[in-house]
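Weekly sync notes, structure subgroup
Attendees: PM, AL, DS (notes)

Item 1: joint prediction request from the bench team. They want all three components modeled as one assembly rather than separately. Inputs as received:
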Amino acid sequence: MFTAAKGRLAWSAVAVGAVVALAGCASGDPLDEGTSTGEEGAAAPLVVSSQAYYSNEIIAEIYSQALEEGGYEVDREFQIGQREVYLPELEAGNIDVFPEYIGSLLQALDSEAAGGTADEVYADLQEALPGGLTALEPADASDQNSWTVTREFADKYDLTDVASLANVTEPISVGGNSELATRPYGPEALEAQYGVPIAEVKSIEDSGGPLTVKALVDNDIQLANIYTADPNIKANDLVALDDPDGIFFPDNVVTIVSDKVDAGAQKILDEVNAALSADDLVSLNSESVNDQKSADVIAEAWLTENGLI
Amino acid sequence: MNLIVDAIAWILDPAHYGGPNGIGVRLIEHLWISVVSLVIAGAIAIPAGFLIGHTGTGRAAAVLVSGGVRALPTLGLISILGLSIGIGVQAPIIAFVVLAIPSMLAGAYAGFEAIDRRIVDSARSVGMTEWQIVGRVELPLGLPLLIGGIRSATLQVIATATLAAYISGGGLGSFIFLGLRTNDYTQMLAGSILVIALAIAFEGAFSALQRLVVPAGVRAGQRTKVRSGSPRSAAEAE
Amino acid sequence: MNWVLNNLALIGERTLDHLAIAVPAIILSFVLSVPIGWVANRYRASNGVLLWLSGSLLAVSGLLYAIPSLPLFLALPAIIGTGLRDPINVVIGLTLYGIALMVRATADALASVDPNVEQSATAMGFSGWSRFWKVELPLAGPVLLAGIRVVSVSTVSLTTVGAVLGIESLGLLFTDGLQRNIPGEIYAGIVLTILIAVVLDGILVLCGRLLMPWRHAAAPKQQAPTELVVNA
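Output from the run, pasted for the record:
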């Protein structure tokens, strides 16, 4: 079997080589467009990107429209995957403007990061960012991890904050993305720090999306990791438990910019972030999820309402 | 290459075997999900394929259904099913059953159709009942193609069963998703290698099975026999 | 349905992105599989090293399909040095899957050509090269067509997986529709994926009719269905 596997690998290598050679012949095709590196100088458009997350896309669209209003040319490259995909692109300087979240980005850049208040995390983030990237002043709006339960479950055990989970007397199932198991606020920490009785951890890979919410509502799980700006929390009358000990990193919206973003553009982005409140973010998300509006419509309405365009 | 060496070291590390997230449990989950899906798919597709192959009716519908079903993206299907059924193994199993049906169906009816009609007519003329024709003539003669269909369905399901982990279904995909989410490429690659090894093991088992169950006469005639299948079957079976 | 009507431009754009990935992959699989399949078939009846080569070409190409697609799309850029979200990764990955299906189909197609015909062609003075192009390949056509049709359908379906890496295709309608819980968006993605598969299949059948006009007069002999796969 080992030789078979070796043969397969060697063969794959040959095949890949052949494909690359062929693809090379056919270059100049429409697949190669995009990823402008900005070497063309000041005239090149700013590349604004977003995660494959509808809420992040709305923020990126707001940035784009605001920059266009200020006379900048913008190249939108939205929905480019999760952090593991776009972070290398960002570090390589292929993206000029990216909406991020201070805590999650810090943890991705430095797995040993300490956490703390929003100001502390923002300061650490600026340290951790590689050269050529800058974190602008964060917004009030945040979209952070939370431990969330149903209203019924909260009432039953009188739950208000994470520590009160110790009141729970039955072993509970926890749901969230698989990396939860490795996080400092994960199920193990809950068990060790607060004595929460945990029976099982169920990995649901939709980042607290509808599958996780449904599992919680169906009582397949009793405790879920859901983002605080998720309109599903309100729609399903869920309770996001308070976190007085700060086990979760604060995740305020922050703009990561490259050196290509000049002072004028930074000022525009600062103004947008200054206007973006926590409630705003939830209602922007709700317009996307509940009213099924597209990002450009939502962004334009919000910018108009706030006198930014 | 270093990555692959690391991944193999990861697989060989005894620390990764115990517990609910160990290789042992995940491997059994993966096998369990795959086998259950394949058995259900077989229970639906094989009798249906025999019926179509034996009677020759309904094949247009079967071709249409299996063609359309093949284009169904499994991840999309798991997501939609998950939203109505909830998390766990049910939604992935239904999606894998749907995934396995086209190959099995095509294998079953193409196996029957590839048989020279004159052989079936001869069987009828020597006084065999329809059941005897199916059991003693069509089934053994169609077996190589049927097993071929089951074999490709198995390969697809084992490779795709990694997606069960997307909605808490467990299996070897758990390593792939956890590796993906935590930038642990070693673990991700180790999960993939385990899936490929499992597929290779099944391939080996299937070639042995094919040698065992296919009648000697069929095997001897296979090189010419299979080629002289009914003219349109292959192209339209696709 | 409202979502669909309000987002027709987006859907059209994603459909074109989808085609720009799937079509090159289908063509590449075909073009690369013919020589590999030829080698595998040519030495199928020999012995020693060449038989081993033929056998391992078939076995190994078939097993390419056992590689789960998501890790493959992620690992390819590391192996070949492209950017992570370069669509070329998905094109190459899909080409590998296409080869996995198509090499065996090609070998079987070439094997389906009657050896008597090949010998007659040689007797008539065809050289090996021109015999391949003018006799074997056309006669193998129908089975090759059957193979490429399967490759086409499964490639169109697998293209959606690239969405997980942020590569634009109809798959983005699944990921976005799931997050926002808009079933219409997910269904639109599924329906269009099937529609593209059906249209490409129709084009392949049409190409077959144009290139092999003799098929309807006297249907040639054929091989059983090739393995059919859609894995993700």
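Discussion: Chain C touches chain B through 60 residues (CB under 8 Å).
Action: AL to compare against the crosslinking data before next sync.
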